């Protein structure tokens, strides 16, 4: 039980450092933000694991730590977007995402990409669409409802892509295809 | 001339399905038909006299849905719901049945009296698929006329079906679109509460209220009723975890998917010409070559032929 809790706190710290990457974060700042009694112990073990470095009074992510922080950050964003999309209120979605992010394994997220990441000829099933109500309603009206299979037919470099779904072809702009998340099918 | 009966027919359907062609076939007006989606945003009207009937034909803009995200959609739905044309010809692209049926279902929900023109049936014959139009007719319980608009095939039958519907010779009872129990219960409860008269069909009006359609909501001025609507929408969103309009859109698509899979029959595999040409013209490398070659040909023709013509013209002076 304690281990799970430790893992969670460590991930939170890495994620926080990743978010604040551009700013230098001092130890005291971090300590007051997390306000946790075993704080020094955790920082020490993160240093030993080679995920952070301490320089003067500042905490700096190593390459490995940055990668892990980014992973957690991405999971968080994904979960938060997902929750918002299914109608969970914003602040609550953020809070819940903070909890859920630690519990999803890599491989569950592995096959879910924005549509733009799919190569020509690949097939995906729509998982969710991010965006305002107007955009989502529009795409639903065109038949892009969750669960629909879409196939990428053609991609113009930096330009729109052509997909096929429900027996017809549709061209979508880059801005839109990044908002459509699909589960890749083999 | 004896007494002429007047009726109004509207043409509705997705963009690029051949509505304008059918419009021209019906009215005989000479317009240039381009390929710009939504180009018929202005209301186009024409008249036709057929067997003693004076028929007014209105061409509605090509749209995919009746949600209010564009002017075209608003124009169309208000025309159908408020001006109540006697018959609406729903032009359906036989090649893209599923997406077109989604729109047909919305027209049914809007309680328009429909005749379906199953257009471009000739192109379908050339494709890998065929449609069992009798079965489709039975499922929807709406008269279906296969047409090839550019050749004028099926146009006369279309007019005749419209007149039959107008005269009540065909019993018009289309398929009922029903949603889940939770939605149906609330719609029925709302119908009892929202008792004032609108020109919109009752069921449709109340469904739109539940969906939170802004334009429709504005028609309700009673604060108390608005509160009830708000409460019911909230309940539904909590049950499904999604905005209601999206749930209903999904359900309609599921239905059109189901119908499509029942009536669309796959034939033996044949090479689709359009796909074959796409392979050449839209190829990442060869595509550019075909572009250059065709541009070259165009310029070559302009200068060579143009030169010839201008020299010929010059000889006059």
What does this structure look like?
Chain A is an alpha+beta fold. Chain A has eight helices and nine strands. In chain A, the strands form two sheets. In chain A, strands 4-9-5-6-7-8 form a six-stranded antiparallel β-sheet. In chain A, strands 1-3-2 form a three-stranded antiparallel β-sheet. In chain A, strand 6 and strand 7 form a beta hairpin. Chain B has 317 residues and is α/β, with parallel strands linked by helices. Chain B folds into three domains: 162 residues, P-loop containing nucleotide triphosphate hydrolases (Rossmann fold), CATH 3.40.50.300; 85 residues, Helix Hairpins (Orthogonal Bundle); 42 residues. In chain B, the strands form two sheets. In chain B, strands 2-3-1-4-5-7 form a six-stranded mixed β-sheet, sandwiched between helices. A two-stranded antiparallel sheet of chain B has the order 6-8. In chain B, helix 3 packs across helix 11, helix 5 runs antiparallel to helix 11 and helix 7 packs antiparallel against helix 10. Chain B is globular, with a radius of gyration of 24 Å. At the A-B interface, helix 7 of A face helix 3 and helix 11 of B.
What proportion of the residues of chain B form beta strands (DSSP E)?
A: 5-15%
Cα separation of the termini of chain A:
37 Å
CATH topology of the largest domain in chain A: Arc Repressor Mutant, subunit A
- Count of individual beta strands of chain B: 8
For the record, the CATH architecture of the largest domain in chain B stands as: 3-Layer(aba) Sandwich
Termini separation of chain B: 57 Å
- The CATH class of the largest domain in chain B is Alpha Beta
Strand content of chain A: 15-25%
Outline the biggest β-sheet of chain B: 6 strands, mixed
Largest interface: A-B, 18 and 23 residues
How many helices of chain B? The count is 13
Strand order of the largest sheet of chain A: 4-9-5-6-7-8
CATH superfamily caption of the largest domain in chain A: Winged helix-like DNA-binding domain superfamily/Winged helix DNA-binding domain
The run of helices and strands of chain A is: HEHHEEHHHEEHEEEHE
Q: State the helical fraction of chain A.
A: 40-55%
Which class do the helix and strand fractions of chain B yield?
A: alpha/beta
* Shape annotation of chain B: globular
CATH fold topology of the largest domain in chain B: Rossmann fold
In percent, how helical is the residue content of chain B?
40-55%
């Amino acid at each position: 039980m304690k281990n799970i809790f430790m893992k969670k706190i460590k991930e939170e710290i890495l994620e926080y450092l990743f978010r604040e990457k551009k700013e230098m974060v001092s130890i005291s700042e971090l300590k007051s933000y997390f306000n946790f009694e075993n704080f020094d112990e955790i920082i020490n073990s993160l240093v030993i694991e080679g995920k952070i470095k301490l320089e003067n009074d500042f905490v700096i992510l190593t390459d490995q730590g940055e990668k892990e922080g980014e992973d957690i950050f991405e999971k968080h964003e994904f979960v938060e977007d997902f929750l918002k999309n299914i109608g969970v209120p914003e602040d609550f979605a953020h809070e819940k995402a903070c909890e859920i992010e630690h519990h999803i394994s890599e491989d569950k997220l592995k096959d879910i990409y924005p549509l733009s990441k799919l190569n020509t000829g690949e097939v995906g099933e729509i998982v969710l669409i991010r965006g305002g109500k107007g955009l989502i309603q529009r795409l639903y009206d065109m038949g892009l409802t969750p669960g629909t299979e879409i196939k990428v037919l053609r991609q113009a470099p930096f330009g729109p892509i052509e997909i096929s779904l429900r027996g017809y072809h549709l061209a979508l702009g880059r801005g839109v295809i990044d908002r459509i998340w699909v589960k890749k099918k083999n | 001339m004896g007494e002429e009966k007047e009726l109004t027919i509207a043409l509705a359907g997705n963009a690029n399905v051949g509505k304008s062609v059918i419009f021209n076939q019906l009215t005989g007006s000479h317009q240039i038909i381009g390929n710009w989606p939504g180009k018929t945003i202005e209301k186009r009207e024409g008249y036709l006299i057929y067997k003693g009937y004076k028929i007014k034909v209105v061409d509605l803009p090509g749209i995919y849905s009746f949600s209010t995200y564009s002017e075209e959609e608003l124009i169309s739905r208000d025309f159908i719901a408020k001006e109540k044309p006697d018959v609406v010809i729903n032009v359906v692209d036989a090649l893209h049945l599923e997406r077109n049926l989604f729109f047909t279902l919305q027209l049914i929900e809007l309680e328009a009296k429909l005749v379906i023109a199953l257009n471009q049936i000739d192109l379908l014959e050339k494709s890998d698929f065929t449609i069992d139009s009798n079965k489709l007719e039975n499922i929807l319980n709406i008269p279906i006329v296969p047409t090839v608009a550019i050749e004028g095939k099926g146009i006369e039958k279309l007019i005749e079906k419209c007149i039959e519907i107008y005269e009540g010779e065909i019993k018009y009872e289309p398929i009922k679109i029903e949603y889940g129990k939770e939605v149906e219960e609330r719609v029925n409860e709302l119908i009892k509460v929202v008792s004032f008269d609108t020109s919109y069909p009752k069921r449709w009006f109340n469904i739109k209220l539940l969906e939170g359609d802004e334009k429709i909501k504005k028609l309700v001025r009673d604060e108390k009723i608005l509160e009830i609507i708000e409460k019911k929408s909230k309940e539904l969103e909590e049950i499904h975890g999604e905005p209601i309009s999206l749930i209903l859109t999904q359900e309609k698509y599921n239905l059109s998917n189901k119908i499509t899979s029942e009536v669309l029959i796959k034939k033996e595999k044949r090479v689709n010409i359009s796909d074959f040409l796409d392979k050449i013209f839209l190829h990442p490398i060869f595509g550019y070559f075909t572009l250059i070659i065709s541009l070259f040909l165009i310029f070559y023709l302009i200068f060579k032929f143009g030169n010839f013509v201008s020299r010929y013209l010059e000889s006059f002076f």
